[in-house]
Design goal:
By secondary structure, this protein is an alpha/beta fold. The protein has 13 helices and 11 strands. It is globular, with a radius of gyration of 23 Å. The structure holds zinc ion (ZN).
């Protein structure tokens, strides 16, 4: 009898882990436009049933862009393995017709403190799974993009009228592909949640990094990799007000959102940035309470190094937000909190993506004003000195530093004539 019961438990678990459908992720009180293809109708499996490969992710994002007048799509270049670096722009059809005017005005507001921002849309950059083996973000992106394209009603209309979403479905295509191959190849017909199962023991070097094993979440400042170059160009083109960075952490944890440890915030980041981050966090907390998921804030993770995706925006008048979901690192794994399924991790990331947009919509004018003030205060801070750099013996050093500065749109000029200062 005990054996029978055990067998029954295994069967019922394997069924519950695999039979998830799209409604598990989506808000319940919304109707969806049947013209918009669901992820399953394009990629052939339900969100969370398998780890989405990057090629399927691309296929779905292109299908969405082709079927929705809320979405335009651009191909910003190639990874080292030749995968496209896509960016979706998601906003109301009316804003789409006027997009370049909206963008120009948005940038103008950072240069001219007299521009009135109260009627302007807020710009939100949502980026997923820069660490490729932290895949719940990119997989949640399937459901989030579907929701933004297909949801109907006043709530979504109001959101899209007031928001321009720059949707980066995979910040690390080569790493995501490498991890999807591992998790899918080692998935059994009946999922085995034992942490010692091969599925949860990805081989070295793993999907965290890009093709050359660089951690791209350290490259937002140096901008040396093709993925970062495309992304930083998009960032400066739009100067988003909020940028979200969806990650995963240890399996036994829950869900983290910023603010991080207060004493580990970079001192150059304005206090107001942290205050707004905290106010945005109330939207995440409310949304997680609603679905009954555990979360925490302020007890771990720094907001110090500007080469990270959640911190880089903070020194550019934007608000960077780090999300960290406990990782199932496969399809379902035992943890201190019970069995952690891949769909559960995806649902949390999806929920955080939507609570970010809800906060952006409700706090729009306050956040737009913050960005405008940030640039005004920076100009007036008396820190606007010019810095002279160069090297008598190694011109390449100066050249490459100039290259990095140019990627950040920092103005550089050659000096017109030799001069000396402080004996140099
Ligand atoms: Zn990460």
């Amino acid at each position: 009898m005990k054996k029978l019961l055990f067998l029954f438990l295994i069967i019922s678990f394997s069924i519950s882990a695999q039979q998830v459908d799209l409604s598990y992720y989506l808000p319940k009180d919304v109707t969806y436009n049947s013209v918009i293809p669901t992820p399953k109708s394009v990629i052939g499996h339900e969100v969370g049933e398998w780890h989405v490969t990057h090629d399927k992710l691309v296929e779905y994002m292109k299908a969405l862009a082709a079927s929705s007048d809320r979405i335009s799509i651009e191909d910003r270049g190639r990874t080292f393995e030749g995968r496209p670096l896509l960016l979706l722009t998601i906003t109301s059809p009316k804003n789409h017709q006027n997009l370049e005017v909206i963008r120009t005005k948005h940038i103008e507001a950072t240069n001219n403190a007299s521009v009135n921002v109260s009627n302007a849309p807020i710009v939100v950059y949502q980026g997923f799974s820069i660490h490729g083996n932290e895949p719940s973000g990119a997989n949640a992106g399937l459901a989030a993009a579907y929701y933004l394209a297909a949801a109907q009603g006043n709530k979504i209309d109001e959101l899209l009228n007031n928001t321009v979403i720059l949707f980066d479905p995979s910040l690390n295509p080569d790493g995501l592909q490498r991890f999807a191959y591992w998790a899918n190849t080692n998935k059994a017909q009946n999922i085995n949640p034992d942490p010692n199962d091969r599925e949860y023991r990805e081989v070295w070097p793993g999907g965290r990094t890009n093709h050359y094993w660089f951690d791209m979440n350290r490259d937002w400042l140096p901008v040396q990799l093709p993925e970062s170059r495309a992304r930083i160009a998009s960032f400066h083109k739009w100067l988003p007000n909020i940028l979200t960075d969806h990650h995963e952490m240890g399996t036994n944890s829950s869900f983290f959102f910023q603010p991080g440890i207060p004493s580990r915030t970079n001192p150059l980041t304005p206090q107001m940035n942290q205050d707004l981050t905290k106010e945005i966090a109330t939207y995440h907390a409310k949304a997680f309470d609603k679905i009954g998921s555990m979360y925490y804030s302020e007890e771990s993770f720094d907001d110090f190094y500007y080469g990270k995706g959640s911190t880089f925006p903070d020194i550019n008048g934007s608000i960077g937000i780090l999300f960290e979901q406990a990782s199932s690192r496969g399809h379902a794994q035992e943890s201190d909190n019970g069995i952690l399924t891949f769909p559960f991790t995806i649902r949390n990331q999806f929920t955080a993506a939507l609570s970010t947009l809800e906060a952006a919509k409700n706090m729009r004018v306050k956040i737009l004003q913050y960005q405008q003030d940030f640039y005004k205060n920076s100009r007036n801070s008396g820190e606007n000195k010019a810095i002279v750099f160069g090297d008598e013996k190694d011109a390449a050093k100066s050249f490459h530093l100039a290259e990095v500065l140019k990627r950040h749109q920092i103005k550089i000029h050659e000096v017109k004539a030799d001069f000396s200062s402080n004996g140099k």
